[in-house]
Amino acid sequence: MKRRVVVTGLGAVTSLSCRVEDLWTRICSGESGIRLIERFDASFFRSQIGGEICDWSMDGYMGPKEAKKLDRFAQFAMVAAIDAVRDSGIDFSKTDVSRCGVILGSGVGGLREIEVQHTRMIERGPAKVSAFTVPKMMSNAGSGQVSIQFGLTGPNTAVATACASASNAVADAMRTIRNDAADVMITGGSEAAVTPLGMAAFSAMRALSERNDEPARASRPFDADRDGFVLSEGAGLVVLEELEHAKARGARIYAEMLGFGVTADGSHITQPDKDGVGAARAMANALEDGQIDPAEVGYINAHGTSTMLGDQAETAAIKTVFKDHARQLSISSTKSQLGHLLGASGGVELVLTILALRDGRIPPTINLDTPDPTCDLDYTPNEARDRRIAVAMSNSFGFGGHNASLLVGLLRNGS
Known about the structure:
The chain is of the alpha/beta class. It has helices at residues 20-28, 64-67, 72-88, 111-124, 133-137, 141-150, 165-178, 196-204, 243-248, 277-290, 308-322, 335-338, 345-359, and strands spanning 5-13, 35-36, 49-50, 100-105, 156-159, 184-191, 234-242, 255-264, 299-301, 330-332, 361-362, 385-386, 391-398, 402-409.
């Protein structure tokens, strides 16, 4: 019998808020965290908007000297991890740390550090490149630093599957606990790709929205007038725990991780399969893994990036898996409010999905004013809706053809 995995702590860093409960309130109110870029001059970019975190501070988490040794994406991971651990109430000094680990995802890693040090090398020579360059730029810096922060010596890995990174990390952490390789795992994802190179690269692909005159209305998943995603930054982490371990210490349990599905399209490096075949298999595999009937699912936090092909493919995949029940589902894309956090998106969206379960409240898809006729399901347009749900799904699909679906539910009878 599989060991059961539950969620006992939540942490998030986003452009809308860096506090989980405040973030949830703002999400349910339909607020947007998208604005004109402020940290650098984006006036000559096609896209000049993003989900940028402008009031960022490590105060209360880490001293300035220590913080300088971390790239921005690792700083985000540290703050979200510390908040999630505080929220969980776990005391690692009273826990077997060899049974506690970290698995974090990041699609890009320390991009800003690469930019800064490359410029320094060109302008001042190779001898002026910082000795901290490698430990700051490497994609596993987040997971390594979090384990060091808490002295955890159990499984520790980093996942890089583009926009599916955080969800793949959570799936790996679930598997680790199920397989009795750990009792506690800190997991999720972080990203800080709102940089000049990040903006230029995604703009060159024509992947980003260019609705610069209306930043808050730019991210519009499933809307006929969508013109691309909005690049964002931040982190979303959770504390996962084996059920009996959590109960033994009297932990508050938010939800149970019921299942996961991970697949590949195997067809194109950036474009999803138009029928969403790989995405459908990920969702179906998650249901099978959790032994959940499709009709039990009440809500899907969609990948919903606001790209033409992606939104259509996800809609097709949902119809394939859920058949007639697809029209009974509540679906929404919180990327309409937060933009696309790339490798961190699945972590933040899992946090929001868990809160939707807790409160019986479906967050909205804002800016859904003119529905795309091919996206004809219930995407919870513009206003949050009360609905009691017992099981929900969070989808993440990434460049490279990576697909990951997570299935989460309220703690069931027999607990």
